[in-house]
């Protein structure tokens, strides 16, 4: 029965995208890229030290700020002829 359980675990852990939910410190050092890949796909990973959870690796949630129309009004000033060619570049524009 023990061999069957070990075979089942090893086949489950090798399935692509099926990272474990927790790693001991040695596993975490040797499988860091696997842990990061799992986190990039939205999974949370717990790091264990001597069987006790000590840290959690979680995805960073990006904040999307709503843009306000006219937020830079009055802060940006365009001079007259702002789009005129610069004298130093006239020879390149010929």
Structure in a nutshell:
With 94 residues, this protein is α+β, with helices and mostly antiparallel strands. The protein has three helices and three strands; from the N terminus they run H-E-H-H-E-E.
Structural class: alpha+beta
Total E-strand runs: 3
Approximate shape:
elongated
By CATH's scheme, which homologous superfamily of the domain at 17-62 applies?
Answer: YefM-like domain
CATH topology of the domain at 17-62: YefM-like fold
The low-confidence runs, each spanning 5 or more residues with pLDDT under 50, are 1-17
Provide the CATH architecture of the domain at 17-62.
3-Layer(aba) Sandwich
Helix content: 25-40%
Oligomer: single chain
Please give the radius of gyration in angstroms. Answer: 28 Å
Helical run tally:
3
CATH class of the domain at 17-62: Alpha Beta
> Distance between the terminal alpha carbons, to the nearest Å?
83 Å
H/E topology pattern:
HEHHEE
Arithmetic mean pLDDT? 79
Strand order of the largest sheet: 1-2-3
Q: Estimate the strand proportion.
A: 5-15%
What this model shows, in words?
With 94 residues, the protein is of the alpha+beta class. It has a domain at 17-62: YefM-like domain (YefM-like fold). 29% of the residues lie in helices and 15% in strands. It has three helices and three strands; from the N terminus they run H-E-H-H-E-E. A three-stranded mixed β-sheet has the order 1-2-3. The longest helix is centred in the N-terminal third of the chain and has 12 residues, at 2-13. The protein is elongated and about 70 Å long. The protein starts with a helix and ends in a 37-residue tail after the last strand. Residues 1-17 have low confidence and may be disordered.
